[in-house]
């Protein structure tokens, strides 16, 4: 998960869990409920979401997804706003009943607050996610990050192959120019032999490996993506 978009409890567990503590932890996770927020008002950060939601119930973890990298680049380039923007978010409540009630109460309602507050007139768009647990979110985020990294490696491999082909053509053109110049000096006509049917380009080993890895990632994450798509 992106650390900038995450806001969790301040307590940190630094010692191994005993079987009893592990059972208690699993029971806490079973009682927890998650709310999905489909739109985050511009400029609102995870700490602010936590502060607002804490007024309605005990909050566990909060995660906000940052906007697309390309969109963020254009926004920073053409606007004065340089801070990260977030597009959607997930809020975990310690009690699923409280989470369900809050989602029904706040959905399609103004955020409110004191007069003159930046987000006073913005509207909440949220939904309670039944049977959805925090570990499902972390697995989905990790899966998407792995797919993105694999795509980048494939694109870099293809770009390297194209660059090598371009340099090869440049060198070939230089050699042909020299031959043509020598022919002209001798008064002869130079006619280069053109080969129209090139053999099919063989994929590089790195490219084949990354392509196979990308296919495996998509296959392994298909079941999780189907679950999330049915929820959202």
UniProtKB/TrEMBL annotation:
Compositionally biased tracts (Basic and acidic residues): 181-198
Keyword Disulfide bond found: no
GO MF annotation terms: RNA binding
One GO BP: endonucleolytic cleavage in ITS1 to separate SSU-rRNA from 5.8S rRNA and LSU-rRNA from tricistronic rRNA transcript (SSU-rRNA, 5.8S rRNA, LSU-rRNA)
Keyword tRNA-binding: no
GO cellular component: nucleolus
Region (Disordered): 181-232
Predominant place of localization: nucleus
Keywords: Nucleus, RNA-binding
Cellular compartments annotated: Nucleus, Nucleolus
Family from the record: Belongs to the ESF2/ABP1 family.
Protein's UniProt name: 18S rRNA factor 2
Organism of this sequence: Collybia nuda
Taxonomy of the source species: Eukaryota, Fungi, Dikarya, Basidiomycota, Agaricomycotina
């Amino acid at each position: 998960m992106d650390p900038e978009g995450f806001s969790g409890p301040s307590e940190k567990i630094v010692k191994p869990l005993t079987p009893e503590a592990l059972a208690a932890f699993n029971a806490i996770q079973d009682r927890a409920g998650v709310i999905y927020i489909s739109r985050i008002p511009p400029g609102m950060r995870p700490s602010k979401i936590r502060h607002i939601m804490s007024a309605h119930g005990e909050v566990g973890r909060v995660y906000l997804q940052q906007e697309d990298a390309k969109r963020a680049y254009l926004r920073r380039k053409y606007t004065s706003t340089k801070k990260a923007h977030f597009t959607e978010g997930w809020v975990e409540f310690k009690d699923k009943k409280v989470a369900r009630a809050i989602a029904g109460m706040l959905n399609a309602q103004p955020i409110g607050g004191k007069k003159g507050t930046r987000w006073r007139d913005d509207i909440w768009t949220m939904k309670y996610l039944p049977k959805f647990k925090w570990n499902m979110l972390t697995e989905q985020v990790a899966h998407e990050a792995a797919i993105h990294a694999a795509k980048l490696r494939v694109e870099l491999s293809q770009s390297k192959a194209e660059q090598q082909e371009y340099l090869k053509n440049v060198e070939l053109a230089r050699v042909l120019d020299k031959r043509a110049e020598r022919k002209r000096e001798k008064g002869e006509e130079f006619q280069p032999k053109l080969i129209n049917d090139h053999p099919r380009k063989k994929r590089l080993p790195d490219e084949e490996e990354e392509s196979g890895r990308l296919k495996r990632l998509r296959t392994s994450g298909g079941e999780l993506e189907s679950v999330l798509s049915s929820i959202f």
